[in-house]
Amino acid sequence: MKNKYRFLKIIFVAGVWIFLLRFSLQRFNNRPVEDIVVKMLQKEPVSFINDKIVREIIRRENPTNRIGDLNILSLERAIRAMPMVDSANVYLELNGQLNLDIIQRIPIFRLSKNDKYFYVDEKGVEFPMSSSYSYPCMLVSGKVDPEEYPMLVELVKIINRDDFSKNFFVGISKKGNDYYLMTNEGNYVVELGRLENLGFKIKGFKTFVEKYLIYQDQMKYSKISVKYDNQIVTTLRKGNEDKTSQERVYKPEEKKKEEVKEVKKDSERESKKEEPKPKSEKSEANKKK
């Protein structure tokens, strides 16, 4: 008998608990969404989407604004489906607050291909330009294959890390299989060739500018090529000389060695001048006097 009453007691308590839980859940589902908090968590401030656009999507997904009619997974998919969104996390708190953590894509360069413009992020993902917002980044033109996006991303990052390169280069162009850098000074292009040894090529061109080109008339050049190893080839514009001249870019270590040699030569010359004459020579000179 005791076991029977105990069993009935357990069933009664479980029934009451289920009833209360269902009642509370029903009340919670009938509540409206109290507040919406949208957070943009990307590294840099971009405004391809804003709070207003996100709230419009929420209104479309949940027109009644009831918690019970809100499909969290469907809302999350709708936001992630936007091409400028990298990732999104949607969750609801017990107080009725809806939270959306969104990371937008950050363009690395803007690509012009087949008369169409679009952005490419650091993952090599294409996404369309916005009619209401423009992000300042490097312009790339030509028939660029998607397989080349990672190397172009690396090139743009190398350029943006250095203040000289960032201010000097304004665009990248592909002609045939070779890439060229557009400059904001002079009327010439910098030939990179293939997308390899990019850091070495950019550093070599910077050294060439600082050690040689700033002392020249830059308008006389039509092209400066860094595609070859350990040398820079300059093509002169017609009217100056219709030929190609080569300039050797010295590495810092080689230049230091040459400076050390010159210092040694100068010190040797000075030491020879200051060497005292032998006593025998001094005595002979006195006798002659």
Give a description of the structure:
With 289 residues, the protein is an alpha/beta fold. The chain contains eight helices and 13 strands. The strands form two sheets. It has a ten-stranded mixed β-sheet with strand order 6-5-4-7-8-9-10-11-12-13. Strands 1-3-2 form a three-stranded mixed β-sheet. Helix 2 (51-61) crosses helix 3 (72-80).
- Backbone structural class: alpha/beta
Overall pLDDT level: 80
Beta content: 25-35%
Helix-strand pattern, N to C?
HEHHEEEEEEHHEEEHEEEHH
Q: Could you estimate the helical fraction of the residues in percent?
A: 25-40%
Tally of helical segments: 8
Low-confidence stretches: 242-264, 281-289
> Which geometry do the CA atoms define?
elongated
Largest sheet: 10 strands, mixed
Provide the spatial order of strands within the biggest beta sheet.
6-5-4-7-8-9-10-11-12-13
Radius of gyration: 36 Å
Give the N-to-C terminal Cα separation: 148 Å
Number of beta strands: 13
Q: What's this model, at a glance?
A:
By secondary structure, the protein is α/β, with parallel strands linked by helices. The protein has eight helices and 13 strands.
